[in-house]
Design brief:
With 128 residues, this protein is mainly α. The chain contains four helices and no strands.
Length: 128
């Protein structure tokens, strides 16, 4: 196994691993204070403490699931190109990384929908 392949393998697994790590952090140890630097930050999630905690719980659960699926799926093409030339390995790794960005970004949509469904425009729980 050459160093370039190992590097590209690790690069290809970076997004799923980050999703798993931050999914766990957001699910189990979300940032305590609403801030502009760290956490799931959207206009809705930053309304108040309830929306902040809810958003982190939701995106954390989503990223744990999506990250695990992406990790397994990403291994398959990288195993398939094991031993091939560096150009093939790098193209497959690049394609994987671009494809992984899609579920990373799209996973924000269900969280925003859940926030909209659970809280009104002022951040008050719906139905209370």
């Amino acid at each position: 196994m050459n160093g370039f392949y190992v590097y590209m393998l690790l690069t290809s697994l970076l997004i799923p691993v980050i999703m798993l790590v931050f999914g766990w952090i957001f699910r189990c140890r979300a940032p305590k204070k609403i801030n502009v630097w760290y956490g799931y930050r959207s206009a809705r999630s930053m309304k108040n403490k309830d929306t902040w905690v809810f958003a982190h719980q939701h995106i954390g659960r989503t990223w744990l699931i999506v990250g695990a699926i992406l990790l397994v799926i990403s291994m398959i093409p990288m195993i398939a190109v094991f031993g091939m030339d560096d150009d093939t390995v790098s193209v497959v790794s690049l394609i994987l990384t671009v494809v992984q960005l899609i579920p990373l970004v799209v996973s924000l949509i269900p969280t925003e929908r859940a926030l909209r469904k659970s809280f009104d425009e002022d951040g008050n729980p719906v139905g209370k």
